[in-house]
Design brief:
The protein has 271 residues and is of the alpha/beta class. It has one domain (10-267): NAD(P)-binding Rossmann-like Domain (Rossmann fold, 3-Layer(aba) Sandwich). The chain has 8 helices and 7 strands. A 7-stranded parallel sheet has the order 3-2-1-4-5-6-7, sandwiched between helices. It is globular and about 50 Å long.
């Protein structure tokens, strides 16, 4: 008997920011879950695979974003500025662009968005505190501030128009943790995939906020309020602990990057 091929979860899924580090990872991981994966970025996307569509678009271009969301079932929105930058590019991509994306979703009838928020929304909490998605935001810079705006935008579009969003406060998603801070904030690529798929598959999400991290032994973030998504991380930073601590044997207890959860972001930017 020929084994059955699973039916893709979506007809057309949009991935913005597809040329970025996490976008490139999710590009190959999301493809089996949709008939068509529409990819967008302002950077080079390479050649399209068999079930891919390449649709470059600047998020600040309202007409381009309206066209980008036409015929889309759901969106994984990684697009925008992903580091601390001056105000102008953050305003254009992360604030104006986020508004354009949600307006296009409303007009085009898209019902589910997975929004790449950031742990830097709460970066000015201390590393000796445990924070949940229900706690007040404390952004550590303009980048974190823009992601807090995105979360509020998602709440508005759910309350007014019923567009569901899962806002992912992504920690540090790399092949392995680079320093002691990342022992707490690390999110493996496989757990990133699990988290995004949980956010897409959960039957009812409203506007849910969840921290994106693996099953690390020490963590500053409590995801209890987001357990309804069904996300269960399977990786951990613990196997990397000895190597990381040997590479970084001492911490400067007076350094704001050691005091606050946002790490180096708390002392970056044009302030």
């Amino acid at each position: 008997m020929t084994p059955s091929i699973p039916t893709p979860m979506f007809g057309r899924l949009l991935l913005t920011g597809a040329a970025g580090g996490l976008g490139r990872e999710l590009r190959r991981r999301l493809a089996p879950h949709c008939r068509v994966l529409r990819l967008s970025d302002v950077a080079e996307l390479g050649a399209a695979a068999a079930n891919e569509e390449l649709v470059p678009a600047a998020l600040e271009d309202v007409a381009a974003v309206q066209a980008l969301l036409e015929g889309v079932d759901a969106v994984v929105h990684l697009g925008g500025v992903s580091t601390e930058q001056p105000w102008a590019p953050i305003l254009a991509a992360n604030i104006v662009g986020a508004y354009h994306l949600y307006e296009a979703a409303r007009v085009q009838g898209v019902r589910r968005i997975v929004f790449a928020s950031s742990n830097h929304v709460t970066g000015f909490y201390r590393q000796d505190e445990v924070v949940s998605p229900r706690d007040p935001v404390r952004p550590d810079g303009l980048y974190g501030l823009s992601k807090a705006f995105g979360e509020n935008l998602a709440q508005l579009y759910f309350d007014r128009w019923g567009i569901e969003t899962v806002s992912l406060r992504i920690g540090s998603s790399f092949p392995e943790p680079k320093d002691r801070r990342m022992l707490a904030t690390w999110l493996s690529y496989a757990d990133l995939e699990r988290l995004v798929l949980a956010a897409l598959k959960a039957p009812v999400v409203g506007h849910s906020i969840v921290y994106g991290l693996s099953d690390n032994h020490g963590s500053w973030w409590d995801n209890t309020s987001a357990r309804h998504l069904g996300y269960r991380p399977q990786d951990s930073s613990e196997p990397f602990r000895a190597e990381v601590e040997a590479r970084q044997p001492r911490l400067d207890r007076d350094d704001p990057a050691t005091i606050y959860q946002g790490g180096a972001f708390v002392r970056q930017g044009p302030f």
